Amino acid sequence: MSSKTLTVAARLLRRCFHKPSRVFQVDPVRLYYASPQVVTGSAVRTVDLRSDTLTKPGAAMRQAMAEAEVGDDVLGEDPTVNELQKFAADMFGMEAALYVPTGTMSNLIAVMVHCRERGDEMIVGDLSHIHIYEQGGSAQLAGVHSATVTTLGDGTFDLDQLIFKIRHGYPDPHYPRSRLVCVENTHNIQGGRVLPLSFLQELRSVADKFGLAVHMDGARVMNAAVALGVQPSVILQHCHSVSVCLSKGLGAPVGTMLGGSKDFIQRAVRARKALGGGMRQLGVLAAAGKIALSDMIGRLEEDHRNARSFAQGLLQCDPPLYQVDLTTVETNIVRFRLRDSQMSPAEFCERMAGVDEEEVKALGQGVQVLMFPHVGDSVRAVWHLDISEEDTQLAILKAQFVAQQHKRNSVRAA
Questions:
Q1: Can you give the pTM of this predicted structure?
Q2: In this structure, are 196 and 333 located in the same domain?
């Protein structure tokens, strides 16, 4: 940390022992996926760590979108889409790929293609995005039953438990037929954890033995590839299909690539149309996707570095309000807990989003840091291309300010 930053930090800490004055109006941070009100004013800097879905396309991406050659993609005639799909398939090491509007639709399409009969079953982690955050679409729209295995801390699950959950008695009329197992890489709820290649290899062996397909919800699989220092195809060789989001850390405004065999993608095209995902002059969006896959993967390392710096900064705060395991900070997501149960994660996020006059005087500006209360009484913060190293240092200083202020208020209450 530079001497200038240390000076700012010292000013901040001195101000912590003065009673705060008027607070700028800020709506409380609500639950996951909610939108707190952003504080406005020339003296306020916002560091938005709620999600990497918040990225905005840069100048090069916008220019590519404006100049994109287009056609009717439902007829297979959009040249920019076709180029993107070929590029993605080659990168994934798969035969074909399909542009899909959203990751949720892409995962649902994969389930529909792999589980072709209503009443088929997929096996998923109990903390997976498909199981928790996609509205049960596999049951609601595809008629596919879900069985769950226990998600472990690193995002994996026990393969013996998986084998136990497979319906070995089919076609016994009492049971659904096990068709599919889904994994998530990186794992969102478990804090951006990267699935070990050894786990994926062993999982594929089990799947092949029992006739299951393997689908990867790889919304952030490029983060996993960067963290492991391998090409995406090294990870995806163990999967039959994958869903890769373009609109998170890769910075595209919308879109997900679904990869698999040629037969799988042919069936996926039909499922996409049935779900309303067939679009026309799609090249305008596909052009952004081409930039995302060709130019934006390498820079994910910057997000990983900033996330780790923030986690280390939390551990160095005095008083020690924050609890974080650095070994779990593998990519761009940091999950941490508060050591003092008198402050809930929601209250902490509200305080981080608030700005008072004492803070403005100490830092020369207010710093509004937006984060989400998360599962397990934790707080989640996510880095992306719109969060700089300077933003990260300001978020650390704000966390230090909140820790000092909480200590002072606790002493007064005692």
A1: 0.89
A2: no
